[in-house]
Write a structure and sequence with these properties.
With 406 residues, this protein is of the alpha/beta class. The chain is built from 15 helices and 14 strands. The strands form 2 sheets. It has an 8-stranded mixed beta sheet with strand order 3-4-2-1-5-6-7-8, sandwiched between helices. Strands 11-10-9-12-13-14 form a 6-stranded parallel beta sheet, sandwiched between helices.
Length: 406
């Protein structure tokens, strides 16, 4: 494809580096394969300031940390917003922009993207998280703060040329409180990228007396309820006497240090491994050694409507999984997940013990999970919706549409 006809897309990310944002990484590579030029602005992951990652030009900025409080996050957002303004102007001058594709949270980056519509550029809002619900659940925010946060979300949706969202529930939010016409909202579900990150794996074969391993991968923020998993580990080992079960908790976030402290306080330092944030190849290698995986998120106004990446990643790896019952988790998991109505560490511990003692059920759930990902949810089956959005915005500069192998 001639460079003069390539669609030039700038992705803006604030909450995590590009290397850790699996959704944006999949979207970027789907567009590259279709002939687009991709640039990303995001927080630094410890690497070089500017580097090319598999054909994607990534500009990193030093993300400040002012603590996990509401005011700490506000300080982070203001500083990050300044970096996004500067880098977007730089990219516009040096590489050119046709579409600015903004990922939330937070719902602030429309302030960067929307003004470029005056110059004929397009703005796509990629709705990942429900920020108003997050503020209400996590920070117990006042009515004034919630009003501001809801206004920021509404502006993100209304000023975008198109809204992309992760599931049908989010689509309804875009057409109701976002005020968008349904024709301007497209569901692009999260889904594991099988051909790149999840090759078929042989089941774990345990030697006699080798411990079972329970796995978790994802962010460790207060709303992720990793403390439930740690307390379940304590119940299993110190109340139920299940010293044959160990834990691998991979991830980082605002609650990582408090989670490590809770682990140590409960006498689980040796049996609950917490290596911190890992890039996907390292995280996947750790998960590959697990027998059971857990999504410990307790249903709230915030997360009951979310499509959880970690649950689908467990399924793609063929791992039997346990989750507290939530509508979108049920959609993702289908009949391949053990759902708990009782939202307590005690119920979680009992479910882990039961599944650990039932090898046939573990094998059946793992098989069904992998099949559901392959047949319905994998990124190879979802990316056509994303490419359709770009064809609608720029019909004169059509993308090369192709089918990715499964």
């Amino acid at each position: 494809m001639d460079d003069s006809t390539r669609i030039r897309v700038l992705f803006l990310i604030e909450n995590v580096p590009y290397s850790l944002d699996t959704r944006v990484r999949r979207e970027a590579h789907a567009l590259i394969a279709a002939g687009a030029q991709i640039t990303v602005v995001c927080p630094n992951d410890g690497g070089k300031f500017v580097r090319d990652v598999d054909g994607v030009r990534v500009y990193h900025y030093p993300k400040p940390s002012f603590g996990a409080s509401l005011f700490g996050h506000l300080g982070e957002y203001v500083t990050s917003l300044l970096f996004h303004f500067l880098f977007t102007a730089w990219v516009a001058l040096r590489r050119g922009i046709d579409v600015i594709h903004v990922a939330n949270p937070p719902d602030l980056l429309w302030l960067v993207a929307a003004p470029y519509r005056l110059f004929g550029k397009y703005f796509v809002f990629d709705h990942h998280d429900l920020v108003p619900e997050l503020f209400e659940v996590r920070y117990k925010s006042s009515s004034l703060v919630l009003s501001v946060v809801k206004w920021l979300e509404r502006m993100s949706m209304r000023l975008a040329d198109h809204v992309v969202c992760t599931n049908e529930t989010f689509r309804q939010f875009a057409t109701t409180r976002g005020g968008r016409d349904a024709r301007d909202v497209t569901v692009v579900r999260n889904g594991p990228w099988l051909s790149r990150d999840f090759p078929p794996m042989a089941p774990v074969v345990r030697r006699p007396r080798q411990p079972f391993v329970v796995g978790y991968v994802g962010l460790i923020n207060p709303q992720d309820n990793v403390d439930h998993l740690i307390r379940a580990a304590h119940i299993l080992r110190h109340t139920m006497g299940r010293t044959d079960i160990e834990f691998e908790i991979v991830g980082g976030g605002d609650a990582f240090n408090s989670s490590v402290a809770l682990r140590d306080e409960l006498g689980l330092t040796e049996s609950v491994r917490m290596p911190g944030m890992q890039l996907w190849p390292q995280a996947a290698a750790r998960l590959a050694r697990t027998d059971i995986c857990v999504q410990p998120d307790v249903p709230t106004l915030f997360n009951q409507h979310l499509t959880m990446n970690k649950l689908m990643e467990y399924m793609a790896l063929g791992k039997p999984s346990i989750a507290y019952d939530m509508p979108e988790s049920r959609y993702s998991g289908g009949d391949a997940v053990v759902y708990l109505q009782d939202r307590t560490p005690e119920a979680l511990a009992a479910a882990i013990a039961k599944l650990a003692d039932d090898p046939e059920l573990r094998a059946d759930l793992g098989r069904r999970g992998r099949e559901r990902i392959e047949n319905v949810l994998c990124w190879e089956r979802q990316q056509a919706a994303l490419l359709g959005v770009y064809q609608k915005l720029l019909p004169a500069r059509a993308l090369k549409i192709h089918s990715s192998p499964l």
